[in-house]
Amino acid sequence: MRPVGLTIAGSDSGGGAGIQADLATMAAHGVFGTSAITAVTAQHTRGVESSHVLPLEEIRAQIDAVTGDFDVGAAKTGMLATTEIVQTVADYAREFDFPLVVDPVMVATSGDRLLEPEAERAYEDLLGAATLATPNADEVEVLTDVTVTDEATAREAGEAILETGVDAVLVKGGHVPGERVRDTLVTSETVRTFEHPRVDTDATHGSGCTLAAAITARLAAGEHLESAVEGAIDFLAHAIRYHYDVGEGPGAVNHFVDLRDDASREPTAEAVQAVVDRLVDADVSALVPEVGMNVVGATPSAESVADAAAVEGRITRTLSGINPNRGVRFGTSSSVAPILLAARESHPTLRFAANCRFDADVEAALDSLERDVLEVDAGAVDDIASGSSLETPSTDDGTEPRTTVSSLADREVPPAALLDRGDVGREATVTVLATDPETLAERLLALDSEVDR
User: Fold this and answer.
1) How does the average pLDDT of the chain come out, rounded?
2) How far is residue 297's CA from residue 135's CA, in Å, rounded to a whole number?
3) Burial class (CB in 10 A: 0-12, 13-18, 19+), 309
4) Residue 111 has pLDDT above 70, yes or no
5) Rounded-to-integer distance, Cα 361 and Cα 13, Å
6) How many beta carbons lie within 10 A of that of residue 334, not counting itself?
7) CA separation (Å) from 197 to 145, 170, 183?
8) 102 FRET partner, CA 20 to 30 A, in 55, 307, 405, 424?
9) Coil, strand or helix at 182
10) What is the arrangement of strands in the sheet containing 47-53, beginning at the earlier edge strand?
């Protein structure tokens, strides 16, 4: 039977936060979402125009209707708006026989308080009946007077909130400055910090709702709390990184990015196979390096080698032409896939790549075809493939730092290929890049034809 989640929160007409974000997040996790709307807001990607709080009897009627019919697996709260609503939900929460996640919506993005002091005090009763609280740094300060600046103060704040009776506290680090976001989960027994790179975007409206809803959905599906929190944090980071470019404001969190990627895996693998078939039919032996060739395709929102399809065992030369050693599978490329993923950091439309040999003939062919080639210093591509930093390294001896794939960030349009001339004991290679499989195949076939000619 499909798990059921309940969200008790406000409605966002812009779709980025509130009930709309909660239900989209639950659906993305395979959970059937139900709702009790506390307030209706008129808002969009640029801000809130107006809001209207629903009567208490209507809020109660919604909660009664849902809990009286559905086998709710977990619930969450969002915007509760008034003291009376907070107290009403707290009364219900004491009777819930399922986990409750409380996202204490108290402070606007501008820093303004959203609730009267009585409502803030009423939250203590609600937290006492909750499984998890998910305050951001501003809300933590309202609840505890602790200013969160690092892991130690996050732990201090979490321990203070535990005194309300809540089972666990996730002190969110999104509002704390820094290149990395640190979210700290505090329970009476353990403290764990989850860390990931900060995504450089303003499209974070509704991120708190989305995170709490993702945790709720995972709890409803039977996950352990710590696992649910970890998975939800990863889900949110991905949803923000690949946000929707909608509206005139910063955009919206992409709640369905993971579903889209899952749906694209089979077509991506098929596209890689189609390129391989064309290369085999054309016998591009002249392009295959001694280490073998590989063709790689990444899903639209690929984050790791596991999201890239490639020929298992590569493509090698034989007496009768070229031959892929095995079939196309995800997670099998340890060299070309990392280079493609690194290039996608600057140009996320790049989805396909292949490596080929480099010598004077290939160089002449590249020049003849007028391909835009970015030359990287010896070893740069290998460094990327082995998981080294994408940053251009600094030097202490006064020499110019070598060029890495990070040089792509300086280009408005990505090059057609990356060139590494190699070094002693390492073969020179060209990595051909493309946004689609047809372009990749055409570039490789044109290069092969020019080399043969």
Assistant:
1) 88
2) 39
3) buried
4) no
5) 60
6) 13
7) 27, 18, 12
8) 55
9) strand
10) 47-53, 32-44, 4-12, 72-77, 100-102, 132-133, 168-171, 180-187, 191-197
pTM over 0.70: yes
Instruction: Look up tokens 């790791």; give the residue.
Output: 304
Evaluate if residue 25 carries a pLDDT over 90.
yes
Q: Which two tokens stand for residue 302?
A: 């690929």
Amino acid residing at 46: R
Task: Please tell me the CATH code under which domain 4-255 is placed.
Answer: 3.40.1190.20
d(CA 265, CA 329): 10
Give the per-residue pLDDT at 399: 33
Cα angle for residues 26, 30, 35 (degrees, 5° grid): 35
- Give the closest residue to 232 by CA, choosing from 285, 266, 196, 277: 196
Mean pLDDT of 414-420: 89
Distance (Å, whole) CA 76 – CA 93: 10
Q: Using the predicted structure, report yes or no on whether residue 393 has a pLDDT greater than 50.
A: no
Instruction: Please give the span between the terminal C-alpha atoms of the chain, in angstroms, as a whole number.
Output: 63
Residue 203 CA from chain centroid, whole number: 13
Residue 246 structure tokens: 């909608």
Quickly count: other Cβ atoms within 10 Å of residue 378's Cβ: 14
Q: Are 49 and 12 in contact (CB under 8 A)?
A: no
Residue pLDDT, tens place only, 95-106: 999 999 999 988
Rounded to an integer, the average pLDDT of 332-360 is 92
- pLDDT for 213-253, tens place per residue? 999 999 999 999 999 999 999 999 999 999 988 989 888 99
Asked if 59 and 35 count as a contact pair (C-beta separation under 8 A), the reply is: no
* Whether the Cβ atoms of residue 296 and residue 385 lie closer than 8 Å to each other: no
Domain locations in the chain? 4-255, 260-452
Contact predicate 416/407, CB 8 Å? no
Fold of 260-452: L-fuculose-1-phosphate Aldolase (3.40.225)
Largest CA distance in the chain: 82
The three-state secondary structure class of 120 is helix
3 state DSSP class of 52:
strand
- 152 contact partners, CB below 8 Å, separation of at least 6: none
